[in-house]
Amino acid sequence: TELANIRNFSIVAHIDHGKSTLADRLIQSTGTVADRDMKEQMLDAMDIERERGITIKANTVRIDYRANDGQDYVLNLIDTPGHVDFAYEVSRSMRAVEGSLLVVDASQGVEAQTLANVYTAIEADHEIVPVLNKIDLPAAEPEQVRAQIEDVIGLDASDAVLISAKSGLGIPDVLEAIVTRLPAPQGDRNAPLKAMLVDSWYDPYLGVVVLIRVMDGVIRKGDNIKMMQTGAKYGIDKLAVLKPAMVDVAELGPGEIGVLTASIKQVRDTKVGDTITHEKKGCETPLPGFKPSVPVVFCGLFPVDSAEFEDLRTAIEKLALNDASFSYEMESSAALGFGFRCGFLGLLHLEVIRDRLEREYGIDLITTAPSVVYHVHMRSGEVQELHNPADLPDLTHVDHIEEPRIKATILVPDDYLGDVLKLCQDRRGIQQELTYAGSRAMVVYDLPLNEVVFDFYDRLKSITKGYASFDYEITGYRQDNLVKMQILVNDEPVDALSMMVHRDRAEGRGRAMCEKLKDLIPRHMFKIPIQAAIGGKVIARETLAALRKDVTAKCYGGDVTRKKKLLEKQKAGKKKMRQFGKVEIPQQAFISALKMD
Ligand code: GTP
């Protein structure tokens, strides 16, 4: 296809503002997918996976469209992950296209992820077409939202397209706006091949499928290619475009977007943002700005039932096949037995993986306290990355410890602003900005990531009744007064409950943990001290009184079978306990103690 007749774009929106619904309408109204094959949320890979039982990551689609000018255009829509955890992937995908549709729900207005995503699009030099969705709703206020886009984002919204993705109203205007207002891609067909690796996924039938955007040159089936960052070399087996089902093509030229397969074994062999060129007569300089995504939040995952360890291993290996950003290694804990230390791009990523392990693979898990990655500066000058508080080196060798900081943007209705400011202050936040976007306040805070990984988002949602939106990016590392807090039960440290905390917050958190554990650990024949300690110093203490729990006490009379049954039940209950020194700690205690209220 001629460059002038190609338009490449993405859709940026806050969650639930109608991105998927709009994509569905664009696909449907152009006849890309026959009506009888049209499923709701065509671009939702998970749905398709569920329905057909195979993986088609159909989040990219090529649409053929005859415009009002009588010419035929190829429109390539690349879907971008919606969440902050995948910020790097979002910014990469955006560099593969020239423009964006900015979808804003006309009844809600601009939200935190609207801002985060639109700024990424602006950074990628996109031409942006504002689209006001859901104008069918009585609560829609398109004029106010138009003004808000201009005030808050600084984007001219006078030509915003008004639509209802649900009813289909305004969809032809969106298609025309894509053709007339977004720029055609540029590129040189005669230059050496230069293509961007935009995304990759594992398909059970085809193996690893790689999504590419050709910048310069032409890529053909059978070509020998190399990945410039990893140095890996492959022969291309298959070249296709996504409509959204794969349709084979012989070649892809400048400006085009498609997929290739090349007997690549695992998704981790492909790095998002890498440059693909020909093995011979390749291009000299790779595309700029490549950086591999690294996990920022770590936690231990242990099976509740230790007999399920092998099942957990198999499940984790399977998940990792399709998710290169998730890391894992075996870990053993005195309290929890064998499990895995896993690294994630962020909290949502952690939750998604944990949910999938529990739901899709049916494994009950104990998740240890999530920890961020600390930089431990040793007296020797060496810097160690700390993923697990249990591995903190002897403090006499440590000079100082640095923690990751984030820039958090929160949009919230005026009424809840006070509570939000208090929450941020309580979490060691430093206010950077406080402005208004219509009737909503926008606050920007500098916060330690450590204070956000526990339960910040849950707290924010509950204090604002779900009306706040939140987004963050990691800004860098800073030194602070950080210590390792240990929990001792009957004078024995329980490694799974160790955590890094700020010195000023240690007492509070230690006390809360001890109080919780006191309620969660059953009484024993002897009294049990439960302590929080920093180094050798105890900072909080509770004592669990001794008691003999006689479960048969309430069995009056001589009903022996009933008595036996109760004793058996008690025995079975014990299996769900972990023997710790002389003390038995129920599994539930680990899960509950780590949840902060
Ligand atoms: P995620 O996929 O969760 O990120 O959300 P999204 O932005 O893709 O939104 P989605 O398309 O799933 O739409 C969210 C909800 O809004 C769905 O219940 C849609 O049916 C509804 N919706 C989308 N467009 C319209 C519209 O024009 N009018 C009305 N009334 N509802 C709409």
UniProtKB/TrEMBL annotation:
* Matches recorded under CDD domains: EF4_II (cd03699), EF4_III (cd16260), LepA (cd01890), lepA_C (cd03709)
Give the record's membrane topology.
Peripheral membrane protein
Write down any Gene Ontology CC term. Answer: plasma membrane
List residues of the Tr-type G domain.
4-186
Q: Which domain of life is it from?
A: Bacteria
Gene Ontology MF terms in the entry: GTP binding; GTPase activity; guanosine tetraphosphate binding; ribosome binding; translation elongation factor activity
What SMART domains does this protein's entry cite? EFG_C
* UniProt-listed GO biological process terms: positive regulation of translation
Against SUPFAM superfamilies, the record matches this protein to: EF-G C-terminal domain-like (SSF54980), P-loop containing nucleoside triphosphate hydrolases (SSF52540)
Q: Which reaction does it catalyse?
A: GTP + H2O = GDP + phosphate + H(+)
Q: Where are the transmembrane segments?
A: none
What subcellular locations does the record give?
Answer: Cell membrane
Q: Which UniProt keywords apply?
A: Cell membrane, Elongation factor, GTP-binding, Hydrolase, Membrane, Nucleotide-binding, Protein biosynthesis
| Family, similarity comment | Belongs to the GTP-binding elongation factor family. LepA subfamily.
Q: What does this protein do?
A: Required for accurate and efficient protein synthesis under certain stress conditions. May act as a fidelity factor of the translation reaction, by catalyzing a one-codon backward translocation of tRNAs on improperly translocated ribosomes. Back-translocation proceeds from a post-translocation (POST) complex to a pre-translocation (PRE) complex, thus giving elongation factor G a second chance to translocate the tRNAs correctly. Binds to ribosomes in a GTP-dependent manner.
User: Which NCBIfam families does the UniProt entry name for this protein?
Assistant: lepA, small_GTP
Protein name per Swiss-Prot or TrEMBL: Elongation factor 4
Could you tell me which species this protein originates from? Roseinatronobacter bogoriensis subsp. barguzinensis
